[in-house]
Amino acid sequence: MESTSAHSPPSSRELAPRIKRELHKRVVGQDRMIDRLLIGMLTGGHVLLEGVPGLAKTLTVASLADALDVSFQRIQFTPDLLPADVVGTMIYNQNTGEFTAKRGPIFAQVVLADEINRAPPKVQSALLEAMQEKQVTIGGETFRLEEPFLVLATQNPIEQEGTYPLPEAQVDRFMLKLRVTYPDRATEKEIMRRMAGKAPEPLDTVATAGEILAARREIAELYMDEKITDYIVDLVHASRSPAEHGVPGLAHLIEYGASPRASIFLALCARAHAFIDGRGYVLPEDVKAMGPDVLRHRVITTYEAEAEEVTSDDIVARLFEAVEVP
């Protein structure tokens, strides 16, 4: 089967590098986070960013929205937030004597849900329902959310007091879960030099919503060999039945393996990773690059794993070592 790359317009292949160049005017380092946010945007998959404060999570998300011709809303999640504060509510108009729908901040194409674990479960559910259904119901009337629609959520892993951790079933709605880590010394020096006492660098709009949607269609058609498809299915199946794939020692560490949603998202992310790399076909390296971010929140560990200080990242790494690469 022929690669779609040969038929791609140059602007399509140049889309991701163009956006990344613009983001790097304002964001120092964090290449991996930028790549994953782009993959989320180019596939329509929501992204959960986990990391301590001060790692430019909010800045990077806001910068991505600035570089695209899309609407953007930031929602600061707090314990007293109500579902209506996210999705909207019915407002009584005294002049007409009628109720009209007042749309909430979820009606944007890029939504930043800051510190999502600070809001109570009913607010989280309202947001996650909109993420899944791509629509919102207010007062019996249903409104479609405008595409491209993307939710990028942040949470602080070290602060547990006064937070409401997302249940596993709701975390599964996020295509990717990223662990954002500290920059190295050279990057931190550049951050200090560039950012200390200065306003953020203004960004140009370098991509339209139409270009994003066109790239999504192209990514969905990107060539993936049957062997790569089998590789993805084997990896996900190994998380449920490790003994069948030569790692029986993992069975007591895994409470629940990844769902079929993991297979779908891993295939889509591998295609998007190849697209960002400028290829019209998927390699095993694309699957390996995206595997941890797709699987870490879908492989649920047991109490034994916690006692042995084995994380889901450790388990995913061992699965990749065990499953044969095509």
Show the helix and strand layout:
Layout: H1 10-23, H2 31-43, E1 47-50, H3 57-67, E2 68-69, E3 72-76, H4 83-87, E4 88-93, E5 98-103, E6 110-114, H5 121-133, E7 135-138, E8 141-144, E9 150-155, H6 168-171, E10 176-179, H7 185-195, E11 207-208, H8 209-220, H9 226-240, E12 254-256, H10 260-276, H11 284-295, E13 300-301, H12 303-307, H13 312-322
Parallel strand pairs: 1-9, 1-10, 2-11, 3-6, 6-9
Antiparallel strand pairs: 4-5, 7-8, 12-13
End-to-end Cα distance: 18 Å
**How many discrete domains?**
2
Total number of strands: 13
Principal-axis shape equals globular
Percent strand: 15-25%
The CATH architecture of the largest domain can be given as 3-Layer(aba) Sandwich
Descriptive notes:
The strands form 5 sheets. Strands 3-6-9-1-10 form a 5-stranded parallel sheet. It is of the alpha/beta class and 326 residues long. The N terminus is likely disordered. Helix 2 packs across helix 3. The protein has 2 domains: 194 residues, 3-Layer(aba) Sandwich (Rossmann fold); 101 residues, Magnesium chelatase subunit I, C-Terminal domain (Helicase, Ruva Protein, domain 3, Orthogonal Bundle), CATH 1.10.8.80. The chain contains 13 helices and 13 strands.
Task: Give a short summary of the structure.
This protein folds into 2 domains: 194 residues, P-loop containing nucleotide triphosphate hydrolases (Rossmann fold), CATH 3.40.50.300; 101 residues, Helicase, Ruva Protein, domain 3 (Orthogonal Bundle).
